Amino acid sequence: MNTLRINSRTASHLRSGKVRIAAVLASAVAAVTLTGCAGWEYQESICSSGEYPVLAVGTTGSACVADGAEPDAGYARYPEGKVPQEVGDKWDVYWQTHTLDKDGTIVDLP
Length: 110
Hints:
two-stranded antiparallel ribbon; three-stranded antiparallel beta sheet; single chain
């Protein structure tokens, strides 16, 4: 039967290796924490896949409609090129202070 013998020098190297691994992991966690996960930003879509956003006429309300379906009464499609895609994007912010009137004209909200 073969017996593995670990002398004190080998044991010391093994312990120092574990310490180095722990230090590397701690550094990685600290780096992620301090940078706030830069570059890993989550962006929430306005609508789910298979849907498109519509605007409530006369208000800042909105909804999502299945692709291929028409908006319900009281809702209209966003003007071309001014459709919000993600929460907080340029057009999502814009439509918080604007809407469409019953004729489809963009109007400022008070």
